[in-house]
Amino acid sequence: MRDVALRHNIKNYKVLNEMIIYLLSNVSKEFTYNSLLKLFEVGSINTVISFISHFEDSYLLFTVPRFDHSLKKMIRAPKKVYSIDTGLCKNISLSSSEDVGRLFENSIFLYLRRRYKEIYYHKKEKECDFIIREKNKITKAIQVCYNLNSENKDREFNGLLEAMDEYNLKEGYLVTNESEDKIKIEDKLIHILPAWKVCSNENI
Questions:
Q1: What is the mean pLDDT of residues 166-183?
Q2: Which of 25, 81, 113, 122 meets the CB 3.0–4.6 Å disulfide criterion with 93?
């Protein structure tokens, strides 16, 4: 109420509240301004954009854009949302089941945000959770998977490899809860690292 509604003189507190609960219930998922406009039936898309901006200014959440070399396409593409705090996210969420994987991805995002200024996600045929840009160049591709197993291994690897091909990277990273390994695929090296080692030793 103080940081958003009162500060920006927002009268429609009900919609404001519903929107933040919805977004924090859907961390690591894509959204568009138009989808929020249709869902909450607010006056205009400018209202939605303002609400999201206020949430970000108050450090309630962060949005991550899909990377594209065209700024126009990047602005129009869906964004992914992450919470400032996974505890807050779990407490406020209306989800009936705890999605450990999405909260795990959110935690890795918060770690990356402390280290890097420009964080995006990649999505074409496949998806890679995070790519890092430094000095106008993509330098890292990072996939996040809480529990890497035979059922999801191909999907996670393929998304990471597509991003590595797209941005001409020889090494990529797959962050898990416990697994650790190095896998060579043709001329590319994938580092599989447990989250505790990533966050404590800054291996990425």
A1: 95
A2: 25
The pair of three-digit structure tokens given for residue 115, joined into one six-digit string: 């280290």
Q: Which of 64, 98, 132 is the last residue of a domain?
A: 98
Alpha-carbon distance of 107 to 123, in angstroms, equals 21
Query: What CATH number is associated with residue 120?
Result: 3.40.1350
Domain boundary among 98, 132, 147: 98
Give this prediction's pTM.
0.91
Q: Are residues 104 and 83 in the same domain?
A: no
Yes or no: say if 188 and 160 are a contact pair by the CB < 8 Å rule.
no
Provide the domain limits for residue 150.
100-204
Q: How far apart are CA 134 and CA 118, in angstroms?
A: 7
pLDDT at 96 over 60: no
Mean pLDDT of the chain: 91
Q: Is 202 helix (H, G, I), strand (E, B) or coil?
A: coil
Query: Which residue shows structure tokens 């990649």?
Result: 122
Question: Is the pLDDT at 2 greater than 80, yes or no?
Answer: no
Q: Convert the pLDDT of each residue in 47-79 to its tens digit.
A: 999 999 999 999 989 999 999 999 999 999 999
